[in-house]
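Structure (tokenized):
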């Protein structure tokens, strides 16, 4: 199959249109991907709270969970209602680990 070569005028117009496009050099936002990533990080840190075997691991897991929740809210991957839900889940995990509730 033979390639058709573009003339210089066609090439110039393509390059010119791409360079001066409104979204030139702007990252593509994939909010669903980032939200799924944030939720999986929050879930894994909440599981780490329940499986912590020392005070150090427990404190790190709680700090990570709170940091992930705050970051997801700051970057608007989750809304305020979801932040409250995740914060309550952290609180329940902390209570279950400290009081050893099942």
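Design, position by position:
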């Amino acid at each position: 199959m033979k390639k058709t070569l573009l003339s210089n005028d066609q090439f110039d117009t393509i390059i010119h249109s791409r360079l001066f496009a409104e979204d030139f050099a702007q990252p593509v936002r994939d909010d669903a991907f980032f939200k799924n990533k944030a939720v999986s990080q929050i879930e894994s840190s909440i599981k780490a709270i329940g499986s912590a075997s020392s005070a150090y691991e427990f404190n790190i897991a709680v700090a990570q969970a709170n940091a992930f929740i705050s970051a997801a809210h700051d970057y608007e991957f989750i809304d305020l209602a979801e932040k409250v839900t995740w914060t309550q889940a952290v609180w329940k995990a902390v209570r279950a680990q400290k009081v050893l509730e099942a």
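Reviewer-requested clarification: The chain has a mean pLDDT of 87. DSSP finds four helices and no strands in the chain.
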